[in-house]
């Protein structure tokens, strides 16, 4: 449902997945996608906007030919999201305020269609309000409490799910129902269960999916626990970040089933994608992939962020400066950054800064690295933590491990979970704390 805003650069197209699975639960299932019902609100402008959105996703390399592309072309987003919030206040302005746009109002229609098809995340709920029957207009204070993820993230993960007709899918974190609608389009709606902890989100999704002619099981509940009514599932998709893989979901996978979810920490900066496969013999194999984008954490996380005042301090304040001939790790060293977040938690990167800028908001430590010539960098640090030393420690350990971007996920008999490099040289325990809510 939510995306970590790490960078404006879209993720690269996924590489071929060595974990292949092509099971059909029902061999009598329809071979053709279940087309959405025609709707009077699906205007020519909306059809053209969807086509342009799909073209952009293809040009960026995050979408290729196949059923996901066909679903994104066919599914009218303005039926799933006939209302959406647009923030009118500046990012650091307080109190914040938004406008709720409504497709039924001609004055809102153009801006709403642009928002729905921009590729950005779409805000659909403010302060946990009921979604159906609400009046459009301004909202002040409070916070956005439900979103539809950016299309680059959604398209990428839907393709990695490898949906097939007749499969049973559990969609944990309904949001606007985009993932559930795509699953209904590809798999047929009889085997799809979409689940959200918020009854207002569930009620809105049920009504809007029905308007498209889809009637999946739309359920209110905690998806990190279990939903056994339609289990086992061929595909499980979690649209919010969890600290570790919920064992209940692993147990609900069919042989040759696959689950995808973001594994995160309180920091939004360096997510990992967990890919869990249950083999045909019943054994489980899992990977943790360092990725550029991931879903936001659910409500069980103590979220860390860099305030405007802290960002300004890092950019301008004096600290202890050392001249270094060691280059800072590049953004593409995703496995190193993933390991840093796990081995030295509490760090947040300011991706909007011109230079490498990282802060630890809980203790006030910070670091900035600025190039000052050929193979020379000024490293300025402040506070009780030496973040540059932490980075150098993890970089050395990551290189000794072979510079991996993919780690094995191991599920131990005592219930603990570990991420380990392929050669075993770099490992860390996944937090057994709260997994977040079931949005």
TrEMBL record:
Subcellular location: Cytoplasm
Top-level enzyme category: transferase
Biased composition (Pro residues): 7-17
Primary location recorded for the protein, binned into one broad class: cytoplasm
Family to which this protein belongs: Belongs to the methyltransferase superfamily. L-isoaspartyl/D-aspartyl protein methyltransferase family.
E.C. code: 2.1.1.77
Gene: pcm_1
Database matches in Pfam families: PCMT (PF01135)
Biased composition range(s): Low complexity: 27-38
UniProt region (Disordered), positions on chain: 1-42, 415-439
Organism annotation: Streptomyces diastaticus subsp. diastaticus
Name of the molecule in the record: Protein-L-isoaspartate O-methyltransferase
């Amino acid at each position: 449902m939510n995306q970590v805003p790490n960078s404006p650069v879209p993720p690269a197209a996924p590489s071929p997945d060595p974990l292949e699975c092509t099971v059909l639960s029902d061999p009598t299932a329809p071979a053709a996608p279940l087309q959405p019902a025609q709707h009077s609100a699906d205007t020519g402008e909306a059809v053209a906007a969807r086509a342009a959105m799909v073209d952009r996703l293809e040009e960026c390399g995050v979408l290729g030919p196949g059923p996901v592309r066909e679903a994104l072309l066919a599914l009218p987003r303005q039926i799933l999201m006939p209302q959406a919030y647009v923030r009118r206040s500046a990012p650091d302005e307080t109190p914040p305020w938004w406008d709720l746009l409504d497709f039924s109002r001609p004055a809102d229609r153009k801006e709403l269609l642009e928002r729905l098809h921009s590729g950005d995340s779409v805000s659909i709920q403010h302060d946990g309000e009921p979604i159906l029957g609400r009046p459009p207009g301004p909202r002040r204070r409070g916070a956005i409490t439900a979103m539809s993820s950016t299309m680059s993230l959604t398209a990428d993960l839907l393709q990695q799910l490898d949906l097939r007709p007749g499969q049973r899918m559990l969609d944990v974190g309904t949001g606007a129902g985009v993932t559930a609608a795509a699953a209904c389009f590809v798999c047929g709606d009889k085997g799809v269960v979409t689940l959200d902890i918020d009854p207002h989100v569930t009620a809105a999704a049920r009504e809007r999916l029905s308007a498209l002619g889809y009637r999946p099981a739309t359920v209110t509940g905690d998806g990190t626990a279990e939903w056994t009514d339609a289990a086992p599932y061929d595909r499980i998709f979690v649209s919010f970040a969890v600290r570790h893989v919920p064992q209940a979901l692993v147990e609900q996978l069919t042989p040759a089933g696959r689950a995808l979810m973001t594994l995160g920490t309180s920091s939004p900066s360096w997510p990992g994608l967990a890919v869990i496969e249950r083999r045909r013999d019943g054994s489980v194999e899992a990977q943790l992939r360092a990725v550029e984008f991931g879903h936001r954490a659910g409500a069980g996380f103590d979220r860390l962020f860099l305030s405007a005042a802290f960002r300004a301090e890092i950019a301008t304040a004096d600290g202890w400066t050392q001249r270094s001939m060691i280059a800072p790790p590049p953004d593409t060293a995703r496995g190193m950054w993933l390991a840093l977040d796990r081995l030295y938690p509490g760090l947040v990167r300011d991706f909007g800064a011109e230079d490498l800028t990282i802060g630890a908001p809980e203790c006030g430590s910070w670091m900035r690295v600025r190039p000052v010539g050929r193979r020379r960098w000024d490293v300025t640090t402040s506070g009780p933590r030496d973040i540059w030393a932490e980075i150098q420690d993890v970089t050395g350990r990551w290189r000794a491990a072979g510079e991996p971007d993919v780690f094995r996920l191991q599920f131990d008999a005592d219930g603990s979970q570990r991420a380990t490099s392929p050669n075993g040289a770099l490992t860390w325990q996944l937090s057994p704390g709260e997994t977040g809510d079931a949005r």
